[in-house]
């Protein structure tokens, strides 16, 4: 089976995105064994990053057309301190000069343009998946992109009616009912319609993207002790439990609501194919504690495959060639795995 062509965006060029992208292409990463990676971004972003490597690396950028023509096999192997990569150049006004560690609107614009071009290539069938390097939400906002995160930006670009954010580390998968939302607004945003949509999207991704035939899904409560029979909050009775009962009537294995602390504390997540948390930190803190550097952000429900590392731009170490590429490599591997599943089973759905 041919290896999938996968787009890797530069991320915020002033962060560690270009660095972890290039490190994922080194022979020791093993990424090329399961995909043909293509960098998306201004060429000067990647060449400047390679020049800051210690010891210095020489970067050879080859046109995307060679990969599309099937000549990727003829690419010369990397030699010590050399990296050969396919590139889809992203046009920007003037030459971009990286400023490691600085938060700027121009860097945010470059990061956004790389995502836009990669998604366009995926929707056109040029690449089979998109892996986005970390971006700064604040830099995106300064550049005029009002989205609270890449997940919402990807939904906008694809026109998808639904999306769910899943962090995955092997079989430990956590999906979010609410995503990038201030904690004070979570309870008001948590409706039966929203929760049902998110659980359905996560369940569908388990079937379609991971090939789980009969998924088991755990749903956490919102309040301490899952509401303590209503004494500590009523959302479990008024919102969460009715949705669980409705989905169980379909024959789906959806259980809960579980008190989050006891659930993760006793390792109950190991019994399920996915856990649905009510808000960002409720689910992602235990997952990242258990799988730092191995977790992958997956955007479920989109018409294109999209994954991302589980970390941010790390402006504090940008430019020092000290960033760990493990999560980026894991994101590329997960993207290739999902792309193959969709290629083999294009019509697999739960509904």
Brief characterization of the structure:
With 351 residues, this protein is an alpha/beta fold.
Secondary-structure blueprint:
Layout: E1 5-9, H1 17-23, E2 36-41, H2 43-51, E3 58-63, H3 64-68, E4 82-89, H4 105-123, E5 129-131, H5 137-142, H6 150-158, E6 164-169, E7 172-176, H7 186-189, H8 192-208, E8 216-220, H9 235-249, E9 253-258, H10 260-265, E10 274-277, H11 280-290, E11 296-300, E12 305-309, H12 326-344
Parallel strand pairs: 1-2, 1-5, 2-4, 3-4, 5-12, 7-10, 8-9, 8-10
Antiparallel strand pairs: 6-7, 6-11, 11-12
Question: What characteristics describe this protein?
Answer:
single chain, 351 residues, alpha/beta, Isopropylmalate Dehydrogenase, 18% strand
Describe this structure in words.
- By secondary structure, the protein is an alpha/beta fold.
- Mean pLDDT is 92; it is low at 71-75.
- Strand 3, helix 3 (64-68) and strand 4 (82-89) form a beta-alpha-beta unit.
- 36% of the residues lie in helices and 18% in strands.
- Helix 8 (192-208) packs across helix 9 (235-249).
- It has helices spanning 17-23, 43-51, 64-68, 105-123, 137-142, 150-158, 186-189, 192-208, 235-249, 260-265, 280-290, 326-344, and strands spanning 5-9, 36-41, 58-63, 82-89, 129-131, 164-169, 172-176, 216-220, 253-258, 274-277, 296-300, 305-309.
- A twelve-stranded mixed sheet has the order 3-4-2-1-5-12-11-6-7-10-8-9.
- The chain has two domains: 1-160 and 302-351, Isopropylmalate Dehydrogenase; 162-293, Isopropylmalate Dehydrogenase (3-Layer(aba) Sandwich), CATH 3.40.718.10.
């Amino acid at each position: 089976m041919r290896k999938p062509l996968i787009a890797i965006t530069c991320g915020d060029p002033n962060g560690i995105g270009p660095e972890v992208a290039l490190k994922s292409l080194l022979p020791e990463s093993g990424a090329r064994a399961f995909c043909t990676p293509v960098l998306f971004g201004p060429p000067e972003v990647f060449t400047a990053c390679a020049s800051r490597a210690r010891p210095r690396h020489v970067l050879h950028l080859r046109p995307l057309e060679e990969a599309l023509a099937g000549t990727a096999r003829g690419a010369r192997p990397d030699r010590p301190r050399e990296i050969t990569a396919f590139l889809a150049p992203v046009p920007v006004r003037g030459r971009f000069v990286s400023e490691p560690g600085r938060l700027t609107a121009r860097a945010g614009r470059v990061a956004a343009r790389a995502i836009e071009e990669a998604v366009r290539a995926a929707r056109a069938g040029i690449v089979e998946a998109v892996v986005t390097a970390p971006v700064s939400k604040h830099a995106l906002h300064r550049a005029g992109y009002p989205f609270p995160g890449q997940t919402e930006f990807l939904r906008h670009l694809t026109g998808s009616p639904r999306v769910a954010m899943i962090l995955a580390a092997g079989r430990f998968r956590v999906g979010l009912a609410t995503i990038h939302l201030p904690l004070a607004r979570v309870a008001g945003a948590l409706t039966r319609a929203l929760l049902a949509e998110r659980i359905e999207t996560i369940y569908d991704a388990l079937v379609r993207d991971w090939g789980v035939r009969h998924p088991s899904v755990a749903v956490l409560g919102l309040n301490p002790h899952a509401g303590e029979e209503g004494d500590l909050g009523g959302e479990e009775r008024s919102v969460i439990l009715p949705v669980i009962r409705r989905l169980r009537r379909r024959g789906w294995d959806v259980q809960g609501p579980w008190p989050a602390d006891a659930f993760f504390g006793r390792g109950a997540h190991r019994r399920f194919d996915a856990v649905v948390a009510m808000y960002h930190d409720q689910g992602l803190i235990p997952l990242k504690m258990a799988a730092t550097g191995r977790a992958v952000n997956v955007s479920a429900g989109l018409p294109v495959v999209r994954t991302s590392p589980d970390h941010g731009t790390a402006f504090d170490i940008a430019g020092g060639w000290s960033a760990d590429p493990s999560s980026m490599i894991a994101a590329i591997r997960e993207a290739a795995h999902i792309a193959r599943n969709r290629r083999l089973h294009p019509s697999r759905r739960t509904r």
